[in-house]
Amino acid sequence: MKYELLIGLRYTRARKRGAGRNRFISFISSISMAGLALGVAALIVVLSVMNGFQKELRTRILGVAAHIQISADGDELSDWPAIAQAAARHPKVQAVAPYVQSQSMLSFDGTVKGVMVRGILPEDEDRVADFGTHMRQGRLGDLKAGGFGIILGADLARSLGVMRGDKVTMIAAQGLVTPAAVLPRIKQFTVVGIFDVGMYEYDSGLALIHMTDAQKLYRMGDRVSGVRLKLDDLFDAPHVARELFRYLPADTYVTDWTRGHANFFRAVQIEKTMMFLILLLIVAVAAFNIVSTLVMAVTDKQADIAILRTLGASPGSIMAIFVIQGIAIGVTGLALGIAGGVALALNIDVVVPFLERVLGVHFLAKDVYYISDLPSDLHWGDVHIIAGVSLALTLLATLYPSWRASRVNPAEALRYE
């Protein structure tokens, strides 16, 4: 082992009994190490949570929304079978499903709620959306043409006070114009199922009925509101949407999920970037605490430095000794921070519910936030970036004190020894 490494590591471990100054230097060193560990751990956990929010948003929103939607003027698509067949010819389109969508009101036992009603073909809808895997009661296949069954979101069913088998009254937004007045179209539906996708917007405001029943209720004949597409890769949606114009008539509109829900993902990405920069300042402060540790260490070790210089050590060797000491402090704190941050990020689904039970609070209320559970998605690429930046800051913090150590004059240092 080179003597610079040996002495640098020995200075890191050295403890002099009864030496108050040395104990204070050791205390400052421990604080710097702990601060760096906490900063790195916090950075890993926060970035993992932001990644988890991005993943949950994609999963929950796109689980019930379409990757691509094809519609026309007035939200009425007449020749939809031909359009669906043309869109399905694209190699990246996995499934297509027609839909009818409109706003209505649901009434039950004196309670009235405004909802978005979506008419679907259950066998086709199950291929483009994940409603089937989120059914709390009943099945998507329980929607039968002419049966006038309805499937409600869990929060919507709870606010109306209905259960499976109850009958709710639907009031269509389009009324019947008569000489006397405009009469609303009213139809009674039987609740055949309840879904819970974990997204408050849909759980509290979406109702599913059979597409044939929706066409009768809204007097659309054989027309539909549009066609929903599912792709093999959701990130190709903008590119595929542009290419679909070659397959479709000129009077159709093609929109993808990045337009309809871009604000969610853009907001999360901006928050992730800002949180990275803010927490990086904590890591930088902890790393530069090493400067004060090494400055005091250099002052305390001036006699040792002078002796090493008289024995033939070069200024570069003296500088290397204190760089090694600073890096040893930083690497130890970095290793502890990475270990703690990774462990917490991988187990946050256990830690957060435990804290909620102990404190008696719920951090993310379901009626306020789109996602009511704190998700975590650890990306090792983020861990590597954090480790690299933290190590670079640690190395940068060691340079000035180490350079000052290399400039110590042996004669001046030993004058009063």
Largest sheet: 6 strands, mixed, barrel
Q: How many strand units? A: 10
Using the CA coordinates, give the radius of gyration: 33 Å
- What share of residues are in beta strands? 15-25%
Question: How many domain units?
Answer: 2
Ends distance:
30 Å
The helix fraction, in percent, is 40-55%
* Tally of contiguous helical segments: 15
Shape: elongated
The ordered string of helix (H) and strand (E) elements is: HHEHEEHEEHEEHEHEHEHHHHHHH
Low-confidence stretches: none
By secondary-structure content and strand pairing, the structural class works out as alpha+beta
Largest sheet, spatial ordering of strands: 2-3-8-5-7-6
Mean pLDDT: 83
Highlighted features:
alpha+beta, 2 domains, 6-stranded mixed β-barrel, 15 helices, elongated
